């Protein structure tokens, strides 16, 4: 488990499935993720299993639940996931926040925690795949010290690849 000033960050558990369903089925949350379409309960379960497949190899990987310390409620998830870009496996930092918690700095706080552990994973860099019109996520990536590295196409849409070179831990 990780901890920040306002968040407890832990791996997903089966009892988190209803929360995950609420995130992946909300059109506001998924608007800029993947194909931009909400998922069904079955889609949420598939996403849950996909995420667990990353965590099973390394507890530092996978999207993890963000719990607001003040209320004890889940407010989103963040983490590091393998992502293929132009035939190369990269390490992506992802962050999804429930709409009730937007604009309060939670995405930056959570993503910063994962940015800080990424160098220990021996990756050359971390990336973030962001649709250009997702201004809030672009700002989070910039606060993490990331810059636009290149543009790719996903789901027939232009996607910005933000990147930050990792400096190995001393």
Topology diagram in text:
Blueprint (H helix, E strand, L loop, with lengths): L1 E2 L3 E5 L5 H8 L2 H4 L10 H15 L6 E7 L5 E12 L2 E10 L8 H12 L7 E6 L4 H9 L3 E8 L2 E9 L5
Parallel strand pairs: 5-6
Antiparallel strand pairs: 1-2, 2-3, 3-4, 4-5, 6-8, 7-8
Helix pairs in contact: 1-3
Give a quick precis of the structure:
The chain is an alpha+beta fold and 170 residues long. It has a single domain, classed as 3-Layer(aba) Sandwich (Aminopeptidase), CATH 3.40.630.
Please explain how this structure is put together:
The chain has 170 residues and is an alpha+beta fold. The protein has a single domain, classed as Aminopeptidase (3-Layer(aba) Sandwich), CATH 3.40.630. It contains 5 helices and 8 strands; from the N terminus they run E-E-H-H-H-E-E-E-H-E-H-E-E. It has helices spanning 17-24, 27-30, 41-55, 106-117, 135-143; strands at 2-3, 7-11, 62-68, 74-85, 88-97, 125-130, 147-154, 157-165. Strands 1-2-3-4-5-6-8-7 form an 8-stranded mixed β-sheet, with helices on both faces. A hairpin with a 2-residue loop joins strand 4 and strand 5 (88-97). Helix 1 (17-24) packs across helix 3. The radius of gyration is 15 Å and the shape is globular. The two termini are 23 Å apart.
